[in-house]
Design goal:
By secondary structure, the chain is an alpha+beta fold. Helices cover about 50% and strands about 10% of the residues. Strand 4 and strand 5 form a beta hairpin. Helix 15 crosses helix 20 and helix 16 packs across helix 17. The structure holds adenosine-5'-triphosphate and magnesium ion (MG).
Length: about 475
């Protein structure tokens, strides 16, 4: 069904002449009637159709817009369906019992259908002249408020990329393409509507959205859209850290994390999101930090693309593990702390710095710390310890990270990961043999504690390095 949609679209636009890198994202309405395009109602969820129809039956304009239209035209299953209308939030609320109004910056209606949420937004308009309404913009041009209603044309002008400004009209099933988005979709171009620099200054998150769509859709960012990004990258630090946290998940935990990371690095956007990681970047991509980032993103992509669940905290734990080690080394050296104490103190430093950029919620930071702790605990396997470890809630996450460290470092860490790999799946008798055959190379619990206490500050357990 979806492949058919793409083919039809290709055919429709194959003959159009277009200069893919030079045109500007100007607004000019092009209406494509139902027989000329491949979107059918069977591509749209029942809930979204219900909302579209009810709005339309009550005399309002109702369009499916954004990723929903874009993804159907690309032959992909849309992640969610967004609707734009001329009904105000209050008018929307009057029509739907299952409606919640959210958002302070811009009021939106969420219509709930079980777990599915259909987001309905009233057309956004332009801001007043800056001199009349100075407080709506920061001195860098960032929009602080965004609550003016407008016409559908104004709404299209305020969207980010041409491929996101296509509106499917439920009244006659036509597509209203306001910025030549279908052509850009066919050419594989991410192009900003309007002047890219102004639009990035209004909302710096658009820089990472450009990267996200380029990676997700395997498209190229148009020259003029790409050009200002690196210079404006520092503006991202002005975006509230809670919004950046949400964006970071969409960027790196949506199935194309590795490709997205590479693009973020290329445009120098990664360092604002993960400063302590970016400090370890090398020209030849050779640091352990870089290898770990690639390893965890490759694995996350694989899990997501095969429908497996992921724990968002795991990626943060892995990203920050080697920066944590470097910081701990420094503390051991400068403050003569034991390895354990240095790791604890470094953990606080690293996490404090990280949450300034991305407001990682506490439930996730707690899991990150658990996964780090497990890296230390997994080195201790004697007596009942290995058996008890298997019962721990976070054991699997701790082990997965140990395996990734093994892949990055080899040596003793790899051997330790191999041991745990075997231990987990072995029959009980074999497990007991495994623990026993650790023999005298591993001190028993009590003796080990004393040995630790006598360790010099510089000594640390090999497998935890
Ligand atoms: P997906 O949901 O697949 O990630 P999407 O394009 O639907 O992609 P959303 O974040 O759901 O992205 O946003 C819906 C639409 O709202 C976009 O297609 C775009 O038209 C508009 N939009 C979202 N964020 C911005 C922004 N920062 N600036 C301008 N327009 C935006
Ligand atoms: Mg969407």
């Amino acid at each position: 069904m979806f492949t058919q949609a793409v083919k039809l679209c290709r055919k429709l636009f194959a003959s159009t002449e277009h200069n893919e890198h030079d045109s500007n994202g100007e607004i000019k309405l092009n209406i494509i009637t139902r027989p000329e395009h491949p979107i059918s109602r069977s591509h749209i969820s029942d809930s979204a159709l219900k909302v579209l129809y009810r709005l339309s039956n009550h005399g309002y304009d109702a369009f499916l817009v954004g990723g929903g239209v874009r993804d159907i035209l690309l032959g992909k299953e849309p992640k969610d369906f967004d609707i734009a209308t001329n009904a105000t939030p209050e008018q929307i609320k009057d029509l739907f019992r299952n409606c919640r109004l959210i958002g302070r910056r811009f009021r939106l209606a969420h219509i709930m259908f079980g777990r599915e949420i259909i987001e309905v937004a009233t057309f956004r308009g332009h801001h007043q002249e800056p001199e009349k309404n100075q407080s709506a913009q920061s001195k860098e041009g960032m929009l602080l408020r965004d609550n003016v209603y407008g016409t559908v044309v104004e709404d299209a002008e305020r969207r980010d990329f041409t491929i996101n400004a296509m509106y499917y009209n439920i009244a006659d099933f036509s597509i209203h393409d306001h910025a030549n988005g279908i052509q850009d979709l066919n050419d594989g171009i991410i192009r900003m509507i309007g002047d890219p620099e102004t639009r990035y200054r209004e909302d710096p998150v658009r820089m990472i959205r450009a990267i996200r769509f380029a990676a997700k859709l395997d498209m190229t960012i148009a020259d003029k859209t790409a050009q200002p990004i690196t210079e404006l990258a520092p503006l991202l630090s002005e975006v509230p850290s809670a919004r950046l946290f949400e964006e970071s998940l969409k960027l790196l935990q949506a199935g194309q994390g590795l490709a997205t990371y590479k693009l973020l690095r290329e445009y120098q956007l990664f360092g604002t999101l993960f400063p302590s990681v970016a400090r370890h970047f090398t020209d030849d991509n050779s640091s352990k930090v870089e290898q770990m980032v690639e390893t965890v993103l490759r694995s996350t992509d694989k899990r997501i693309n095969s429908g497996k669940r992921i724990n968002p905290a795991f990626m943060f734990a892995a990203f920050l593990w080697y920066p944590l080690q470097a910081e701990a080394e420094k503390l051991m050296h400068e403050k003569s702390l034991s390895y354990y104490d240095a790791i604890m103190a470094a953990g606080n430093h690293i996490m404090d710095e990280q949450v300034k950029s991305l407001a990682i919620p506490r439930r996730h930071t707690a899991t990150v710390r658990d996964i780090w702790q497990l890296q230390l605990r997994l080195t201790r396997r004697t007596g009942k310890r290995a058996f008890q470890m298997l019962e721990l809630n976070k054991f699997r996450a701790g082990f997965d990270m140990l395996e990734m460290r093994g892949a990055v470092e080899g040596g003793q860490v790899e051997e330790l990961a191999q041991w745990w790999h075997e231990f987990q799946d072995a029959p009980v008798v074999h497990r007991q043999n495994m623990v026993q055959s650790l023999g005298h190379s591993q001190p028993s619990g009590r003796r080990k504690k004393r040995t630790y206490a006598k360790r010099k500050p510089s000594a640390k357990p090999a497998a935890s390095e």
